[in-house]
Amino acid sequence: MLYKKTLIVTLLASLCTNNLSAQTKTVDINELQGNWHLRSMDGKDVRKARAILDFDPKEMKLNGFDGCNRLSGELKTNNNTLISTKLSATDMECRNYIHSYVRHRLHKTMKEGFTITEATQNGIKGISIKSSKHELFFKKMGQDKGWFKASL
Fold first, then answer.
1. CB crowding 113-122: b at 16 or more within 10 Å, else e
2. Closest Cα partner for 36 from 116, 107, 123, 112?
3. Which long-range contacts (CB under 8 A, 24 or more apart) does 86-90 make?
4. Pick from 111, 112, 72: which is nearest to 89 by CA?
5. pTM given for the model
6. Contact present, 59 and 75 (Cβ < 8 Å)
7. 131 within 8 A of 106, measured Cβ to Cβ
């Protein structure tokens, strides 16, 4: 019985992972303007780290918060791959493990180069930032604010 439950859970997890990576529409850098909240990293929920990336495509700059520190960098393109060069951050200590986990992997992904595609995760539309070793899912901040005015 335990074997069957494990098999079902494994199959469902595989289907969910495939659903996230099945959408491969590359996002144009100009569509990224604004703040993006990191929701999952390599399949793990990391919303509590409160990491945010702020893309400025006109200036080709990246700013944000990595869970522990403010960060900034310049963006360079190479075909459909982006890379953040001269990535710098303040040097504050991380409060706990989740913040340290997110900080380390976020910096590594930004430095090694990444592609950005449209993605949906758990019914939420966003973007997937994928490097050779990591996959990060972000949701655009402020997307849900229009519902309040429409309901009045």
1. ebebbebebe
2. 116
3. 87/62, 87/111
4. 72
5. 0.75
6. no
7. no
CA distance 24 to 28: 12
Integer Cα distance of 75 and 123 in angstroms: 29
Residues 6+ apart with CB under 8 A from 13: none
CA distances (Å), origin 150, targets 12, 21, 143, 144, 147: 36, 33, 13, 11, 5
Residue type, 123: G
Interval 96-109: pLDDT, tens: 999 999 999 999 99
The pLDDT tens digits for 53-111 are: 999 999 999 999 999 999 999 988 877 777 777 788 888 888 899 999 999 999 999 88
Residue with tokens 């409160």: 50
The residue written with tokens 């590359």 in the block is: 26
Report residue 81 as tokens: 């791959």
Q: Decide if 53 contacts 64 (C-beta within 8 A).
A: yes
What 3 state SS string does 102-148 have? HHHHHHHHHHHCEEEEEEEECCEEEEEEECCCCEEEEEECCHHHHHH
Rounded distance between C-alpha atoms, residue 28 and residue 151, angstroms? 32
